[in-house]
């Protein structure tokens, strides 16, 4: 019996796919701008800011987070994730699992849709695009789950078969994860052409001839878009601006109607009459990755890790770091996400922390080298605040700052030379956070916990959102006991929008909203 998910309403209690580290960095600086309401009246141009060029204009090789902007303007996803975190029909009108193991997922496609190459959307074309994504070598392929097979089972039905339970299937097919952004047959036949002209079904068509690499990316209105009432602009341009003061100036002077802001320039933006929008995003954490004590023997004792977790006056640190644009965080998930438990969390207790260290055999503390970076923590003020707090419980911490880029930072993190790493997590469900904390730079030594694994396996096969949330909360409690990752404060994504911008919404469930959606009310507009 089919268990189709309703094609609108609140998102299911599952997960958005886990973020790759590079994607988390891309998502730091969000971009977007203008448009969306009712009717078909259009403004002349949607102008948005983004801090860097696209990873790729081929949807199968593109980035996610804020950099999804470059693809979303020209390509529709199967399922749309709104700024409030709701799932809405886009190229798929309904979807759901057809089994009880959460391994067979089917989507029914919208009729009457054409790609910019003139061909019609059907299940064969959709499956071809999705299979291309799996083998194109893009950085998001790990986000879409353990796909075994994708096939067209009828002219309007696509079936995805997974190798293991994948309750987050619907969310892996939104605009942020690549596989759901469908490419037309002509583009698939010549993927190199996608770098100069798009072949999607979206509101715009990429204009390579009118664009300038690393400066501006221009899009023209798609005359064959399936929902003309959602098109509020005749053209769009993404402007590459990365200096915070230049970003503020561009927003103030109307060069862009939407830009990624910062806590440092937000007050000036308000004074200039811009709207300042925010959404919780990065959960800054001290990741105690050497849980077997290979580099730092002290960290093998859970009492030491728990002592470290008690060392931080989180509200005070958050205020000092970013004022009202940050808040203390004492668990791996943020309020409002799936698995957050308001009944748990680390407190602030220096005396208890010192007692735990003494019980573990470290009454005088110990030395600890911590790896950090200067791409997200630009002046290392975040990292230094963490080091200072550790000093208050007797831990002599030293920072090793990687300044040459995120790739080298990740390489250093995976080298097993460092017992602790400062880097934020970002996610909306426990499944997503579990994927981060147990993989990659958050777990270079390969730590595992049978109890945590069992909880997450039960969550993956849960038969209801409520049952899954209960398992996720149990996982939150287990992670607090283990103290593998010690959250300290959460920062907000900051956006500057023109006074007349409507239909913009960002939330903890989607801090990277896109300006185009499948309906008029989900597309931004200028009043």
Automatic annotation (TrEMBL):
<feature type="signal peptide">
    <location>
        <begin position="1"/>
        <end position="31"/>
    </location>
</feature>
<keyword id="KW-0732">Signal</keyword>
<feature type="domain" description="Solute-binding protein family 5">
    <location>
        <begin position="87"/>
        <end position="428"/>
    </location>
</feature>
<protein>
    <recommendedName>
        <fullName>Solute-binding protein family 5 domain-containing protein</fullName>
    </recommendedName>
</protein>
<dbReference type="InterPro" id="IPR000914">
    <property type="entry name" value="SBP_5_dom"/>
</dbReference>
<dbReference type="GO" id="GO:0043190">
    <property type="term" value="C:ATP-binding cassette (ABC) transporter complex"/>
</dbReference>
<dbReference type="GO" id="GO:0042597">
    <property type="term" value="C:periplasmic space"/>
</dbReference>
<dbReference type="Pfam" id="PF00496">
    <property type="entry name" value="SBP_bac_5"/>
</dbReference>
<dbReference type="InterPro" id="IPR030678">
    <property type="entry name" value="Peptide/Ni-bd"/>
</dbReference>
<dbReference type="InterPro" id="IPR039424">
    <property type="entry name" value="SBP_5"/>
</dbReference>
<dbReference type="GO" id="GO:1904680">
    <property type="term" value="F:peptide transmembrane transporter activity"/>
</dbReference>
<dbReference type="GO" id="GO:0015833">
    <property type="term" value="P:peptide transport"/>
</dbReference>
């Amino acid at each position: 019996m089919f268990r189709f998910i309703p094609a609108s309403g609140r998102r299911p209690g599952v997960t958005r796919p886990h973020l790759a580290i590079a994607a988390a960095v891309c998502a730091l600086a969000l971009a977007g701008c203008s448009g969306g309401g009712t009717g078909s009246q259009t403004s002349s141009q949607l102008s948005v800011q983004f801090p860097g060029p696209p990873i790729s204009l081929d949807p199968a090789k593109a980035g996610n987070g804020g950099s999804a902007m470059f693809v979303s303007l020209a390509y529709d996803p199967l399922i749309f994730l709104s700024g409030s975190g709701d799932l809405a029909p886009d190229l798929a009108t309904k979807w759901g699992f057809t089994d009880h193991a959460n391994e067979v997922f089917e989507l029914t496609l919208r009729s009457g849709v054409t790609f910019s190459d003139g061909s019609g959307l059907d299940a064969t074309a959709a499956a071809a695009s999705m299979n291309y994504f799996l083998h194109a070598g893009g950085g998001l392929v790990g986000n879409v789950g353990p796909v075994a097979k994708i096939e067209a089972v009828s002219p309007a039905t696509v079936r995805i078969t997974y190798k293991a339970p994948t309750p987050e299937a619907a969310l892996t097919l939104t605009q942020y994860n690549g596989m759901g952004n469908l490419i037309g047959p002509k583009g698939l036949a010549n993927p190199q052409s996608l770098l100069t002209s798009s072949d999607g079904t979206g509101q715009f068509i990429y204009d390579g001839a009118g664009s300038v690499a690393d400066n501006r990316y221009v899009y023209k209105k798609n005359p064959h878009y399936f929902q003309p009432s959602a098109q509020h602009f005749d053209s769009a341009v993404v402007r590459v601006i990365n200096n915070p003061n230049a970003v503020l100036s561009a927003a103030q002077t109307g060069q862009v109607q939407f830009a990624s802001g910062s806590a440092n320039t937000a007050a000036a933006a308000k004074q200039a009459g811009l709207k300042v929008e925010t959404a919780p995003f990065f959960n800054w954490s001290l990741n105690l990755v050497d849980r077997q004590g290979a580099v730092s023997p002290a960290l093998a004792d859970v009492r030491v890790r728990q002592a470290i977790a008690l060392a931080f006056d989180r509200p005070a640190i958050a205020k000092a770091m970013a004022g009202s644009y940050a808040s203390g965080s004492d668990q791996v998930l943020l309020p409002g996400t799936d698995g957050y438990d308001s009944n748990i969390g680390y407190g602030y207790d220096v005396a208890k922390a010192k007692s735990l260290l003494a019980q573990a055999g470290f009454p005088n503390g110990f030395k600890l080298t911590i790896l950090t970076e200067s791409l997200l923590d630009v002046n290392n003020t975040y990292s230094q605040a963490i080091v200072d707090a550790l000093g208050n419980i007797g831990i002599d911490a030293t920072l090793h700052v990687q300044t040459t880029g995120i790739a080298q930072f990740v390489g250093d993190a995976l080298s097993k030379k460092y017992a602790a790493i400062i880097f934020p997590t970002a996610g909306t469900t426990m499944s997503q956070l579990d994927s981060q904390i147990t993989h990659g730079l958050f777990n270079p030594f390969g730590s595992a916990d049978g109890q945590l694994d069992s909880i997450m396996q039960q969550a993956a096969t849960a038969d209801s959102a409520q049952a899954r949330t209960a398992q996720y909360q149990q996982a939150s409690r287990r992670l607090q006991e283990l103290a593998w990752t010690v959250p300290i404060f959460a920062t907000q994504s900051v956006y500057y929008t023109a006074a007349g911008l409507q239909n913009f919404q960002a939330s903890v469930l989607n801090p990277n909203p896109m300006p185009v959606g499948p309906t008029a009310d989900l597309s931004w507009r200028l009043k």
